[in-house]
C-alpha cells in the first residue's frame, strides 16, 4: 500500500488481491491495475488483509514531496 494524497493505493497483482479480499473496485490506469482505499480506513483494511493471511507493507508520504525530511528521503516504512 502506498499513500498518495488522501488514499492508499494498491498496484498490479496487489490491487487484484485487495479488490477480492476487501470487496473494493480495481481498474486499469495507464497500463497498471489499481485499487485504493481512503486513509481513514487504513487500520480496518490492514486488519482484514492480515486476517486473510497476507503480509502488508504500508508506505506513508512524509512532507509535501518538495523537501527531504531529516535526510531520510520522502518515504518511510511503517510496519
CATH superfamily: DNA repair protein MutS, domain I
Radius of gyration: 13 Å
Query: How much of the polypeptide forms β-strand, as a percent range?
Result: 25-35%
Main sheet attributes: strand count, strand direction, barrel closure: 4 strands, antiparallel
Class from helix and strand fractions? alpha+beta
What CATH architecture would you give?
3-Layer(aba) Sandwich
SSE arrangement, N to C: EEHEEHEE
Number of domains: 1
Describe this protein with a few key phrases.
alpha+beta; globular; two-stranded antiparallel ribbon; DNA_mismatch_repair_MutS-lik_N; mismatched DNA binding; 4-stranded antiparallel sheet; 2 helices; MutS, DNA mismatch repair protein, domain I; 79 residues; 6 strands
Question: Can you walk me through this structure?
Answer:
By secondary structure, this protein is α+β, with helices and mostly antiparallel strands. It has helices spanning about 15-20, 40-50; strands at about 1-5, 5-10, 25-30, 30-40, 60, 75-79. The strands form two sheets. A four-stranded antiparallel β-sheet has the order 1-2-4-3. Strand 3 (about 25-30) and strand 4 (about 30-40) form a beta hairpin. About 15% of the residues are buried.
